Amino acid sequence: MQLQHVEHGRRLAIVNEPFLSIIEPYETCYDIALAAIAQGKRLTQLLQEGVSSVQMDYDLIYQGDSDWRLLPAFDHPYDPLHCMLSGTGLTHKASAENRQKMHMAQQSSVETDSMKMYRWGEEGGKVPPGQIGVQPEWFYKGNGTSLRAHGAALSVPNYADDGGEEPEVAGVYIIDERGRPWRIGFCTANEFSDHQMEKKNYLYLAPSKIRNCAIGPELVIDIDFDDIIGKVGIIRETESMWRRTIKTGEKNMAHSLSNLEYHHFKYANHRQPGQVHIHFFGADAFSFGEGWVLQDGDMMEVQWEGLGRPLKNYLVVDEGEEHMVSVQTMR
Question: Considering only CA atoms, which of 156, 154, 164, 233 is closest in space to residue 195?
Fold first, then answer.
């Protein structure tokens, strides 16, 4: 976990419920990950070696009742522009079915392009080790300036049509000095996007994804990405408005993890030394698919078994008038 204090700066900690143990001398996940690669050590070894006697009350920090606040589970601490946020869609059957419903109005055929792409994944997304499977859908979500932590707001900008949760697991990666990608672990994620915009036309998928998102509060480095079960819910004021059980992991997806990772990192510009990648692996349920429209102040909650405490973020709607962004001309 990563923490921030107004006076004391950043700190790195591991979870030892109900406490957090501070790790020294590293202050960020980014730094300890690069140190493990450079020293040829396992990340777990460096973490164990760095555990200090300093402990903090996890409950107070998690609830926002401390001077310490949570940061995203991983980020690029020195240059957020070198943190890429991206994702893979149509990896879960329920997600493809939701997309099918949204896009039937735009296509006259019984099966939309979205469902066809999911079928391709079912047929060729899991291949023997060493072989290359079919390419999945891929989308760009932004850079590290859009990354939020547990307890933070996810905003619907004044130019948006909507904003809704997407409960996912995100993979966390770093590129070493030789251009090799390393998977550090996985974390709970709310990919958050504009489903109303996407519903207008599937070609609006790209801009509908350029929104802020959240990961955390914990980064887990030893979970098996095979069959992960979780829950997602919407809380309005104090009432639970909607809740569903969700599943992810290779067992519940059309693609293998190795195939998804290959098709992301095959691009040389995704393997630049020092880069951070937060990659979202899709979902099998979200409230918009069942007709819910979130309101200002709604709390979105996502939890996966084995990935720590729930990720909670509240929705804020910008009701202001949309204004043109003027581009200055150099002469």
Answer: 164
